[in-house]
Amino acid sequence: MQNEKDTVERILDGDLNSFKILIKQHEKLVIGMIKRIIKDQNDVEDLCQEVFVKVFKNLNSFKFHSKLSTWIGQIAFTTALNHVKKVSGKSHATVDIEAFENYNQTSDNPESLLIQKSTSAFIQGEVSKLPIPYRTILTLYHLQELSYTEIGEITGLPDGTVKSYLFRARKLLKDKLAKHLKAL
Amino acid sequence: MKNKDDEVIQQLIEAQLKGAQPKDDLQENLEDIGLYELLFRELSIETDVADNLDIADKIIRYISRKQYQLESIKYAFVIFVVIAFFFLITSLSIMFVDPGFIATIVNIATIHIRIIFLIVVILTIIKALDKVLIKKEQSVSTQ
Fold this sequence. Notes:
- Chain A is built from ten helices and no strands.
- By secondary structure, chain A is an all-alpha fold.
C-alpha cells in the first residue's frame, strides 16, 4: 500500500514516467476485462485508453480505501458497461437476463459442435456468450486471481452474489462442456 | 441435490488449487469432477494476451499533448488579462483623471518603442526556449 501511495504522489506531482509504469502494471487487468465485456474487439484499444485517461484525471480523488487495482478495475468495468449500453441502446442488465434465459435453453446445432473441435476454443466461445456479469467474474477470478471481495468492489455486487454467479456460470459451462464432449 | 453436488465439487477443486489435500468424498461424481477440473484449467489460461496493444506510450503522449494545450491556453489568457487590464486602466484614466493622458501614453510609447519591442522579443524567446528545451526534455524523460 505504501508503494502505491508513493506512486500516486509522484504521478500527482507530474511524473508521467510513474504513470506509464502504473499503466504497464494494470493494463492486463483492464484489457482482459474490456475484451470480455465488449463485442467489437476494434474498440478495445480506444476503451483502454479512455480508462487510463479517466484514472489519470481522477487520481487525486483516490483515497486508498481499496487497492489501486480494484479502483482501476471499477473504472474499467463502468467504462465498458457504458460503452455496451451506448452501442446496444439497452441497459446491460436487461439484455443479459434475456440472453441468460435463452442461453440456458438453446441447444447447439451439430454443425457448430463439429466446427469447434478444440475444447479450449469451445470453452472460450461459450464464455463469451455468457451474460456480462458472469463472464466478467470468471475473468477476474480465474485470470486475475482476485478474491470475492475484490471482485465485488469492482462489479458493485455483494460477495454472496459474486460467489453465486461464479458457481452458476461454471455449472452452465460444465453442462455445455459435457454435451460438447459427448458429441465429439 | 445435483446443484448441491456441483457446488461441493467446485468448492473442493478451489480448495485443492489453493493447496488443500484432495478429498475422496464424491466418488460417484468422478465424471463431473473431471469436467470441472478441465474447465478450471481452461478458464485460467489467457488466450489473447495484450501483447499487441502498446497503449502506455499512446496514453502518455495524449496526456502530454493535453497538458501542453492547457498551458498554452493559460499563457494566452494571462497575456490577454494583462493587455485588457492595461487598456482598462488607460480608458478609466482618460475618462476620469486626465483627458490628455492618452497623449502622454502615446508619447511614452513613441519615445520608448525600442524598449517595448525588446521586451516583447525577450518574452517570445523565453517562450520558444521553454517549448524547445524544457518541454522537449520532459518528453524525452517520459519515454
